[in-house]
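>> received
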Amino acid sequence: MLARPAGYAGATIAALWAARQVGRFYSFTEPLGPELMNVARNLGISILPALVLLLAGPFRMWFDRFAPLYPLMLGAGVLNIYVQDDALAAGLPMIVLVYPFLVIFALLYLLRGRVSEMRG
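>> returned
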């Protein structure tokens, strides 16, 4: 019940952040620089839980309660980037806390679905 709205909210946050990143450094002289690969990696990591929440189907109630953690954690990380003045203070929490959380979150939801299918 909460997984689908959380997936849509997280995907919206990830897409808006990626659009902001592309808009910030885009130039007509070098449009396909290494920064674009950085944005693609960030978007891939941040949208992965949304894909799992939206495409993996209904979840048990225990997992469904934790689905809103995804947009909250991603939103807090993106907000921290815009609030901090120092580049290290802005990027380090994203790399150390938010990205590992997003990957582990997506894997837990994905593996939870496969474990129940193998049992029954």
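>> The radius of gyration is 16 Å.
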